[in-house]
Every structure is written in structure tokens, then in C-alpha cells.
Amino acid sequence: MGLIGPIGPIGPIGLISLISLIGPIRPIKKEKTMTTEEFQKEIRIGIPDTLPEPMPYDTEINHAPKRKDILTAEEKRLALRNALRYFPKHLHEQLAPEFMEELHKYGRIYMYRYRPRYEMYARPIDEYPHRSEQAAAIMLMIQNNLNPAVAQHPHELIIYGGNGAIFQNWAQYRLTMKYLSEMTDEQTLVMYSGHPMGLFPSHKNAPRVVVTNGMVIPNYSKPDDWERMNALGVSQYGQMTAGSYMYIGPQGIVHGTTITVLNAARKQMQKPGEPDDIHGMLFVSSGLGGMSGAQPKAGNIAGVVSVVAEINPLAAKKRYDQGWVDELHDNLDELIPAVRKAVAEKRTVSMAYVGNVVDLWERLADEDIHVDLGSDQTSLHNPWAGGYYPVGVSLEDSKRMMADEPEKFRDLVQVSLRRQVAAINRLTEKGMYFFDYGNAFLLQSKRAGADIVLPDGKFRYPSYVQDIMGPMFFDYGFGPFRWVCTSGDPKDLAVTDRIAADVMEEIKAKAPKEIQGQMADNIHWIREAGKNHLVVGSQARILYADCEGRTKIALAFNEAIKRGEISKPIVLGRDHHDVSGTDSPFRETSNIYDGSQFCADMAVQNVIGDSFRGATWVSIHNGGGVGWGEVINGGFGMVINGDDDSARHIREMLFWDVNNGIARRSWARNDGSMSCIEREMQRTPGLQVTMPNLVDDELINRF
Question: What dihedral angle (degrees, nearest 10) is formed by the CA atoms of 604, 607, 609, 614?
Fold first, then answer.
């Protein structure tokens, strides 16, 4: 393959300049075009009474790997029985052998025959058949998740992370869309791990959809438990935003990664003898599938030289075709000189190494190349089923081995992790700052026996939440607030960008010193966002904001909709990688040190509280960025349409959604959260939060 794409110099950029470094998104092949009327008819039909023609297996689409053959013969018959219950009995004779073949061939019953023939993307809200505008917005969000430009394995309904699913099969998708097209504002759709349990009477201010994913009994929450229950068709791993209809493509992680890289670089610049300029710094990581594909874009925005390894050529090519990575390399002998040259020239450029990350790390260490910043974004929350590939084994052999020889595959993965950590350790000894990006790298490396644990039992390297995001952002209530313009009109998105920037400027003028930097970075981000071609799929934006920022921005959007300045409703949401929505001891709550980082009260309380304060839909998941059984995630979506109810929901729900987490972090004695919640209590009548009494270390250390 060699080098693909332009390699000429790119001019210097400011610390967080968002000058357009990469061109517009290149189109991805679409399915057969339907008229709006034909599309609406298909939605309303749901699961047809007659057998659709088989859909061809598209080899140009990135497909999920074959899953482990884990079911007994009796369990396979049960999986088939479970799948056939979606269909009328007269179709069972034809479908049964087909579904059983899928189970044997892929390890799951996806029901490929029922994959829709229309294009899959976020249409303008008015094109969806509906009785409830809120339900139409949810349909838009579901289809955005499954857009081939957005989803990692769209035909297997996997959105990102190797196994983060929105549905288990296409029957669930079809039935869910049918229910949403029929429901009123006095019904609630109940979703059990991708399965639409049905429409239930409720009321106007109740959530339109309540989503649960993977809510299994704790003793049955190991990775193989997920494999078994998912193969049976009774549970799924919804990840964070995948199973809750709030994924907006890689834009969200671009912002988060940009902030992380910028602040990691600032930490380096504070060290004696290190560069005083971010330009020319070398950032090395891995993963270009799903969310991790944002890394090269973030590297360009930050202004560094970035090298990201990706074993799957289709994933790497997708990011190149979308304009998110500048160069593709498949030869280390060619890549290493290119890296040296780019660093020497202090050129902002992103390179993808199409190969195994272990080979890359070892070569960098052997060549004595100074790496400034290092991380990893492989899907190590899913190490045995496509989230990580062992060194020295081809992609195809790995896919075969993980299904046919799972124990051998597991051993090879752990050998690779030990080698990867050894190479990283060599580079950190020479000054590299390495941080865990919350993908379970530290956890799985420890389990593999890698040299990743210090004598005191702590990890050798920090989580990025511990060092950066937690103390600088989450503790102060800043997190990934996002919105989607349901019109699909870029003009509406441009209006929201302007409104959000103006609001943030007003807040910054009176903000305390400790959050001035966060405010400045995010104002610059939103001011320049439109220039950087960040939209993939729906007309969406992300902005790190605190409670005051989110509330004032949302209320300003609502007024703009009322005035007609924004043409259609807006969906508000967030990543679950946030202040309140996630209990994750190795990521979101890794900077909580009172022992409660393993407790999930916060996430559960968050979802329950959101549900009666105005959320349009809520979701709770077993699992998230660090894996099934390792985290509980809670999320929401809120449709605002310019009316008084929307304004009330904004004020009540967004306040709770943020301050729940700040209060928990304050009780854990996090300095930023204690000062933040004290200020909030002074501002807000009726808010009374239990504050910790601090104890002198001298007293404690007597015992």
C-alpha cells in the first residue's frame, strides 16, 4: 500500500486552532434510494408478513468478527426458538435453517434478510412517519447510529467498540421503528437490551422510551456470560451512546481527545528540558475503528505529529476516505523516516500505521525515537472478541482463531500486551508521558502479567481521568454536552454554534479563576467548529460545558426555536463519559478515592432522576468504555421544541443531571467539586447538599 494522500507541509496552528486541516467528508456507498413515501410505508410495516428477498452480504462493509462458539447444542436450539418468535409461524420453516446457519457461521443470529433496503442515515425529522414529534426525533437518532459513515459494523448493528450494539438483530430494529411511528405522547416504549417489549400507557411528561442494556444479575456478568446471553438473543452490550441512541459519530471523541492531548502536552511543557511548544510533539496511539478513529483528527487540531496503529485496513481506509487521517502507511521502514521528518519540521500531520501496534511500539523503542505523548485506544474492554489483535498473527487468522481456538487466542493477546507494555516502559524511561485512555488497557495488561503495576500495587501509569479530565473538568461539572439539529440543515447547526459561543462568552466574563482555562478552550472550539468539518452523519455538535453553561445554552436554543431562528426541534444529550452518568472505577470515577469508585449508585440515581424531570428518553447499561461487568452507564436524550414545557425540562433536568455527580464527587472530598457545589448552593434555592468534614492527616496517621 505504501503512502496514500498528500504529505506536503501544513502551516502552523495555534494551541487549539481549528483551522480546517482536512477536507470535507467523502461520501460512503449508500443502499438503494427510496422515495419518502416508500420509506414511510416500510417503517410502518415493521416485520412483514411475507418473506423479503435475501440481502446480499456486502464485502465492502466492515463486518464484525465471528463470535465465539459458546452455546451447547440445546442452547443453540433455544437461540433459534428465541429468534423465530418475532415472525409469524408460516415463515418458520424457511427461516429456521437460515438463522441456524447464521448462528454457526457468525456466532449470532443477525437476521440479515431483514436488513432494510433503504438508505440508512438521519433524515430531516418531518420525513419520519409519526404521531409524536418526540418519537420521530428518536427514529432520527437510531438511524444516525446505523449510518455506515457512523457505525463500525453497521450490518451487525454494532456502532463502536467492537461489540457496542444498538440492537441484537434486524427484527428488533424493524419492530422498534414501527412502534415509534405509531406511539403518542401518552405512551412509553420499553426496551430490554435491544428488544422492544412494547408500548405502555403513560403521560405527556413521562419519557417516551426507557432503555436498559445488559442488566444481568451481578454474579453473571463476566465476558463469557455476555457471549452466551447475546448469542441466545436475550441481552446485549449497549456500550455508552450506542445502545442509547446518542452517538454522533467520532466528533465527540475528537473533542475529548483534543482536550486530553492539549493538556497532556501542557504537562510535558512544564517539565525542564521538554519543548515549550506543542508543535513537533509526537503522539502515538492505536485504534481507528469506532470512536478511536477520532485520534488523528484530534492530533491535527491540537497541532502535533500523530501516529495511530490500526490492524484492520478497512477501518484505516474508512478514516482516510472520511478525511480524518492524512496518510496511510503499511511499512515501518517507510513510516519511521516520515515520522522523523515531520517532527523535525514541526509539521502538523496525522499518520496511520496499517499494522499491529506492538510492532510499532517496539520499533519506536528500538530506533530510540523520542515520543512525547503515548496512549492506546484499542477496544480492550473486549479483548477476546475483536477488540485487540495479537502481534505476529494476521487479521484473518486472528478472526478465525478467536472463534475456533479461543484459549490460544487469549494466550497470544496476553503475550502481545506484555510486549506492548515492555516497549512503552522503555519509552517512558526516556521521557514519554503515557496515559490510559479508559479503554481497559491498564486493567487487561495487569491481568496479562505485564510490568504495569508498581510495588505499592498501583498502576505504573495514570488514567487520563485521574490526571486530566477528572480534576480539571468532571470535578467542576464540565462534560460532553451535545445536541442534534433535527432539521438536518447545516444552517441550523451554524446558528446553534453562534448561540453557544455567545452564551459561553457571557459566562466566562464572571467565571471563577479555576475554570477560566476550560471556558477559553471550549469557546475557541465552538467558534471554529464549523470550519473543521466535524460532522459525520447528523447535524450535531459537542461542547464541554458545566451546569450553568448547558442550561443557558439550551434555554437560548429553545428561545431561538420559538422565534423561528432555528427551524425544527433540537435533541439535547451528552456522552455518558461525564460528571454524573457513569460509575467506572478505571475511567470516569477513577479519581474518586474514598472507596466508592466501585459503587454504582450515582449512575442509577442519575437515570431515575432524569426520567421524572423531563428527559425524552433514558437509558441504563451494564458496561461502557472499559467493558461489560466493569461499569454502569446512564444516559438521556431530550427533545426541545420552543415551548414552555421544554424550558421547564431544561431547567429541572439538566440541573440534576450535572449536580448529582458534583455532589457525589464533593462527598468523596474532591476539592474542585466541593467548591463547585458550595457555589451552586448559594445560587440555587432549595439545594442542600451534605458536605464532608475534612480530617487532618496527622490524626489519621496515628492509627
Answer: 180
Residues spanned by the domain of 546: 477-581+638-700
Q: Are residues 350 and 499 in the same domain?
A: no
**What single letter denotes the amino acid at residue 163?**
N
As a whole number, mean pLDDT of residues 430-447 equals: 88
Contact (Cβ atoms closer than 8 angstroms) between residue 672 and residue 514: yes
Count of beta carbons in the 10 Å neighbourhood of residue 42: 18
Cell, residue 377: 485506544
Q: Pick from 204, 232, 260: which residue ends a domain?
A: 232
Q: Tens of pLDDT along 368-394?
A: 999 999 999 888 888 888 889 999 999
Whether residues 458 and 511 fall in one domain: no
Residue length of the chain = 703
- Write out the three cell numbers for 368: 530510540
DSSP structural state of residue 546: -
In three-state secondary structure terms, 514 is: helix
Same domain as 507, residue 376:
no
Total structural domains within the chain? 3
Identify the domain boundary among 432, 462, 492: 462
Residue 83 grid cell: 429468534
pTM: 0.85
Question: d(Cα 463, Cα 289) in Å, to the nearest integer?
Answer: 21
The C-alpha atoms of residue 77 and residue 80 are separated, in whole angstroms, by 5
Per the CB < 8 A criterion, the answer to whether 570 and 497 are in contact is no
Quick: pLDDT tens for 329-346: 999 999 999 999 999 999
3-state secondary structure of 639: strand
DSSP secondary structure letters along 418-462: HHHHHHHHHHHTTT-EE-B-SSSHHHHHHHTT-S-B-TTSSBSS-
Side chain identity, residue 288: L
20 CB-near residues (< 8 Å, 6+ apart): 531, 532, 533
463 exposure class (CB count in 10 Å sphere: 0-12, 13-18, 19+): buried
Confidence of residue 22 (pLDDT cuts 50, 70, 90): very low
Q: Which residues contact 395 (CB under 8 A, 6 or more apart)?
A: 311, 312, 313, 389
Dihedral sign, Cα of residue 564, residue 569, residue 575, residue 580: positive
Residue 63 lies in a domain: yes
Nearest-10 crossing angle of helices 251-269, 516-528? 130
